[in-house]
Amino acid sequence: MKLTPQALRLISGLAASYADRQSLSRWSSWRKRRAGEDVPGDIAQIVLGMLARHAEHLEQRIDSAMLTEDEEADALNDLGYLRALGSDLKKDAMLREHSA
After folding, report:
1. Spatial contact of 43 and 19, defined as CB atoms under 8 Å apart
2. Cα gap 39→31, rounded to integer Å
């Protein structure tokens, strides 16, 4: 699976907040050299971890009832995108496992 430019930007932004030093280094290195290629398994695992942590953060914001209606709609939209991206990465990983 190849990541879209939008997904690459999102994940790079999340990396600064949610990735440990080693994961951030690995992500940054892969993005600079191979961002147009299929996502390898180790990068997919790093990305899935960041997506899960950010999804949890968004869910907490939504549940807090401190958002305006527009902010809640934006957060729900972002959450849907995170879940779809994560689902696609998981499906891709399963297909690779079965074809190997």
Report:
1. no
2. 10
Cα angle at 22 between 99 and 6, to 5 degrees?
65
| Angle formed by the axes of helices 5-18 and 69-99, nearest 10° | 100
Task: Return the pLDDT at 100.
Answer: 64
Tell me phi and psi for residue 40, to 5 degrees: -75, 165
pLDDT in tens, 72-87: 999 999 999 999 999 9
What's the chain's average pLDDT? 92
Query: Identity (one letter) of the amino acid at 9?
Result: R
Give the DSSP per-residue string, 70-99: HHHHHHHHHHHHHHHHHHHHHHHHHHHHHH
Q: How much is the pLDDT for 21?
A: 94
